[in-house]
Specification:
Layout (H helix, E strand, L loop, with lengths): L6 H4 L3 H15 L5 E2 L2 E4 L8 E4 L7 E9 L3 H7 L6 H14 L4 E11 L4 H17 L3 E9 L9 E12 L14 E6 L8 H11 L14 H5 L7 H11 L7 E6 L4 H5 L8 E5 L8 H10 L3 H5 L6 E7 L4 H9 L5 E9 L7 E3 L1
Parallel strand pairs: 5-6, 10-13
Antiparallel strand pairs: 1-2, 2-3, 4-7, 5-7, 8-11, 8-12, 9-11, 10-12
């Protein structure tokens, strides 16, 4: 007869999973349970998270959802045990996608797939998620930790998120109001955010860059530079919408979160087909890390533009007469804002975007 084979022997440690959940409970204990859009009902650890939305003030309320992952950025964080910021990346990739559509984030759930549960590691990730949720005025209401040694290689972890927000159907920002003559404002990114890391990792390996070295013109060691968390744009954009309004009557016409596809693909997604984008390349400061990547990889501008944010984490399109008001509102929240381009009329065969 064969020896007994337990779940732990097979690679899944239920006790470690329970300890991780207990630590998550401690992280959330005493934290806010109510945000402007609603409140948590019940606690962490059940089969589902419950949330009661506050619908007063919405004529035609819509629930809007977004999901995304940190991508291969997490491999660098794991390799150097620097997980303190990746939770913010997971939150930002979701809530930023919501807010650019005029949606107020309500709650967030995480998914952590892992080779072997390490309660210290899980605690660090979830603490980062909780901080980012608070900064975005949304609530962490649950999640999943899946220990799967057959799925993930030793030392590997995957982190994804799921966020739900609320908006009035009549106040969604879908770009339909964009017209030639509108102005494009760029909100500064914190760096690479969470895109392009498969290329970055290959480049670091090929060029022999050291993670503890500071590349020319950069202001910090390479590891710190590339692991800077994705910026959270929720509070600045909600303040902007309140200050200048949205839609046909002026104010904010469209917003774009610059993620996968870079500047080249994300801004055209939010404008009508009869419009085109013209960006003035030198109208905003590009963090030196992008130039180092471009030079070392030998990439043309077009390839960089479709891979990275190049220093613009979010683009906002406003009526020309609202440009200064919009800039003041954003700068009042601490954002660095630049006028980076304009909307033109698009010819029948003209490109959707030109950067020059």
């Amino acid at each position: 007869m064969s020896d007994p084979l337990t779940y732990r022997d097979a690679g899944v440690d239920i006790d470690a999973g329970n300890e991780a959940v207990n630590r998550i409970r401690r992280i959330l204990a005493g934290r806010p349970r109510k945000v402007p859009g609603g409140e948590v009902v019940g606690g962490i650890g059940g089969f589902a998270g419950c949330f009661r939305p506050f619908l007063a003030g919405y004529d035609d309320p819509l629930l809007v959802a977004a999901t995304d992952s940190v991508g291969t950025k997490i491999l660098i964080a794991l390799e150097h045990n620097r997980l303190v910021g990746v939770g913010q990346d997971a939150v930002a990739m979701c809530v930023n996608d919501l807010v650019v559509a005029g949606v107020r984030p309500l709650f967030f759930l995480d998914y952590i797939g892992i080779n072997k549960i390490d309660p210290d590691q899980i605690e660090g990730i979830v603490a980062s998620i909780q901080r980012a949720c608070e900064e975005s005025e949304c609530l962490l209401i649950g999640g999943e930790i899946a220990e799967m040694p057959a799925m993930y290689a030793p030392g590997h972890t995957d982190l994804a998120g799921f966020a739900v927000g609320i908006a009035d159907a009549g106040k969604l920002i879908d770009g339909a109001a964009v017209r030639p003559g509108d102005i494009i404002l760029g909100l500064a990114s914190s760096g690479l955010h969470s895109n392009g890391f498969t290329l970055v990792r290959k480049l670091v390996e090929r060029e022999g860059w050291k993670w503890d070295e500071t590349l020319p013109e950069c202001d910090a060691p390479l590891l710190e530079t590339v692991l800077r968390p994705t910026k959270l744009y929720v509070k600045p954009l909600l303040k902007l919408f309140e200050a200048v309004g949205v839609g046909e009557d002026g104010g904010v016409k469209a917003c774009s979160h610059i993620t996968g596809g870079g500047l080249l693909e994300n801004i055209p997604r939010v404008i009508p087909e009869n419009c085109a984008v013209r960006l003035k390349r030198n109208s905003w400061p590009e963090p030196p890390i992008f130039r180092r990547i471009q030079e070392a990889a030998g990439l043309p501008d077009e390839e960089m533009d479709r891979t990275f944010n190049r220093g613009v984490g979010c683009a906002v399109i406003v009526a020309s007469g609202d440009t200064e008001r919009a800039k003041l509102a954003l700068e009042g929240t601490g954002e660095k804002v630049h006028e980076i381009g304009e909307i033109l009329e698009r010819g029948s065969e003209g490109p959707a975007i030109a950067i020059g």
